Amino acid sequence: MVLAGIGSISRTMAQNRLLVFFRENVAERKGIITEKFFEQDELLIPKIETENELIKRKLKELEDTCASNNIIKICMKELGMKRANKFGWPNVYSFTKAMGELQIAKLRGSLPVIILRPTIILSTCKQPFPGWIEGIRTMDKLIISYAIGEIVSLPACLDAAVDGIPGDMVVNAMLATMMTNCSHPNSMLPIYHVGSSSKNTLRFRLISETSYKYFSMHPFTRKDGKLITVRKPIFFSKMFFCIYMVLRYKLPLQVLLVVATLFSSQILKNQYIKHNQTYNHVMLMAKAYIPYTFMLGRFDDTNTEILRMRMNNEDKAMFSFDAKCINWDQFLMDIHIPGVIKYGLNG
């Protein structure tokens, strides 16, 4: 049903010269985040030409020093994160998406344009079948890392709003907005938030509880055949998480390194390297997910709700994107987590 709809809509889009800009929302704000287009001065984002010149200069500088491809990759990632953080964005992804939105508005000319902003896209609820997903995405990396025993503690607020929406609902909303806007040009940019936080909030607490319950019942298996027993995760404020990780893991690791060096033990050195890599990975993940695990804002979806209410009953049934109908506990336990393992991890 969804695939057939995409084909039909694609033809209509071509005939009416409709451009849909698909941007994923980022959770770094508090309060109500409205469905409006933000101008460049409101977002405090530099011109894309400025960023392009900066990138070119940095690349030339690295190439002139004969840096390896791996070093170039690391340095460019660091530059991207530095620039994003400088202008108040938590990561390069959200930074460049906002820049892209500005470019679409600038270059669209007379084309009718829709900006669709889905929140965290989860596995499908119904179509093409429950639980379908490609790859491990966003919060799923945390879920899988927890399942394999890599992450036990995390900086997070249990009342944080993890604004997620099933992937098929995003597609349905996209089709509905295209049908509504493709027949006439628009001087204003129609903005549609497709999420759940304003009407059916998924809180981080439920994700934690459901993950513990699921992997207690369906544990992963180690390479040696032993089952991985998950423990209830521990959550801290940002500051206490760093203190805990240093005292609980980093200091013992440093002691291990000293002992390995004193006794020239390659076995101990290998253990240090392995566990230190895990420690660094956990710290990087924690830093990357802080904007989401402490998200207290809500994405207003008034425009999307008005669109849904204007649809007839037949279209509502065919192109469902009403987040109020989601039972989050049942969805996570019976659909999403099994789907992530079956299709995202092993697909």
UniProtKB/TrEMBL annotation:
Can you tell which superkingdom this protein's organism belongs to? Eukaryota
The keyword Lipid biosynthesis is annotated on this UniProt entry: yes
**E.C. numbers:** 1.2.1.84
Q: Which GO terms describe its molecular function?
A: alcohol-forming long-chain fatty acyl-CoA reductase activity; alcohol-forming very long-chain fatty acyl-CoA reductase activity
Which reactions fall under this protein's catalytic activity? a long-chain fatty acyl-CoA + 2 NADPH + 2 H(+) = a long-chain primary fatty alcohol + 2 NADP(+) + CoA
SUPFAM superfamilies in the record, alphabetically? NAD(P)-binding Rossmann-fold domains
Q: Please cite one Gene Ontology biological process associated with this protein.
A: suberin biosynthetic process
Q: Pfam families of this UniProt entry?
A: NAD_binding_4, Sterile
Family the UniProt entry places it in: Belongs to the fatty acyl-CoA reductase family.
Record's protein name:
Fatty acyl-CoA reductase
Provenance organism = Dioscorea zingiberensis
